[in-house]
Design brief:
This protein has 342 residues and is α+β, with helices and mostly antiparallel strands. The protein is built from twelve helices and 13 strands. Strands 3, 4, 5, 6, 7, 12 and 13 form a seven-stranded mixed β-sheet that branches. Strands 9-10-8-11 form a four-stranded mixed β-sheet. Strand 1 and strand 2 form a beta hairpin. The longest helix is centred in the first third of the chain and has 20 residues.
Length: 342
């Protein structure tokens, strides 16, 4: 009888220890529940997302539930869900956009933060950079003569490009917002001169804006537009895929603001979210970015992609991340006024 009681206690203890060792997350009532999933919001292309998620799931056993959309759309969704979030991690979006929404993120320092340049992470750890993204002018070589390749922001005002420039709505695309601020900085430090140039540029775009950032490089590669504004990686995925397109780096200066990632405040699967953040910032994934996706890593111990010019050879504007994020609403409002002709 005593042996049976002892055996019963041993079995119960085994189950208790096993339960404690499970990855857990908090329920709404503060209790712990077993969790082997993480919900990710991401504006990235599936060609980038899928292989990285596949490896993460294989390595950790954690299932990723993915929700895609434009970065502006996803950020507004996170804000609307504050207090009862449905997502755990935002993976993607310009750093200044994440900075503007940082009250909706849970500060977290990734495990190898010392290998990431300070310029590519938030000072309060509300977000961490994923890759560095120089902004470029992309052109279709079948539609643009070599002598006509636009190599400056100013050259986009040429009448030959009227209504033929692919550009995404900065209210819906983080990278497009970065492009807008970059142009403002390059053409007058975001003052009257800069906005005067944006008005001229928007007039030459004939009021056309696309609904997502991925449509700009695709539109150029498919021949819908001869030229477009995009980030370097967006263009190079088509170059490496065999499309007859090229890029130029504006002579007045461009930017290389990172796209970021962050844990959503109140995330139900916070432990799994932290594992994903560490994984994305890890050297293996960052080297994958370079070798397979021609993206520039945010890490100091990862070399840049082959075939891309050195970052030091790109003229950069004085891009003020804090100014861009704190003035985002005003900047988008002014752009919208220009778009509708106010």
């Amino acid at each position: 009888m005593k042996k049976n009681i002892l055996l019963t206690w041993i079995i119960a203890l085994v189950f208790i220890l096993a339960a404690c060792s499970e990855d857990t997350s908090s329920n709404d009532d503060g209790t712990k529940s077993t969790s082997k999933k993480v919900t990710v919001y991401s504006p990235h292309e599936t060609t980038l997302i899928n292989p990285i998620i596949k490896e993460f799931q294989e390595v950790t056993g954690i299932t990723v539930e993915l929700v895609t959309g434009g970065s502006g759309e996803l950020l507004n969704r996170i804000k609307a869900e504050s207090g009862k979030p449905l997502g755990d991690v935002l993976w993607g979006g310009g750093a200044e956009s994440l900075e503007a929404f940082k009250e909706n993120f849970e500060p977290f320092e990734v495990s190898e933060s010392e290998n990431i340049l300070d310029v590519y992470k938030s000072s309060d750890n509300s977000w961490t950079g994923f890759s560095a993204l120089p902004m470029v002018i992309m052109y279709n070589k079948d539609m643009v003569k070599e002598t006509d390749v636009p190599d400056s922001w100013e050259s986009l005002l040429d009448a030959k490009w009227k209504g033929k420039i692919a550009y995404a709505d900065p209210a819906k695309s983080g990278s497009s917002f970065t492009q807008l601020v970059t142009i403002l900085k390059a053409k007058g430090d975001a003052g009257e001169e800069g906005w005067s140039f944006v008005k001229k540029l928007q007039k030459n775009m004939d009021g056309k804006v696309l609904s997502s950032s991925s449509m700009a490089p695709k539109g150029v590669a498919d021949g819908e537009f001869p030229i477009g504004l995009t980030h370097e990686q967006g263009a190079y995925q088509y170059i490496t895929g065999g499309a007859n397109v090229g890029v130029s780096y504006p002579t007045e200066g461009t930017s290389a603001v990172p796209d970021g990632m962050a844990i959503i405040k109140g995330a139900k699967n916070v432990d799994n979210a932290q594992q994903l953040m560490n994984f994305l910032a890890g050297k293996d994934v960052q080297e994958m970015l370079v070798k397979e996706f021609n993206r520039r890593s945010v890490r100091t111990d990862v070399e840049p992609p082959e075939g891309l010019i050195k970052t030091t050879d790109i003229k950069l504007v004085d891009y003020d991340l804090e100014w861009a994020s704190s003035n985002q609403t005003d900047i988008l409002g002014k752009f919208q006024d220009i778009l509708i002709g106010k």
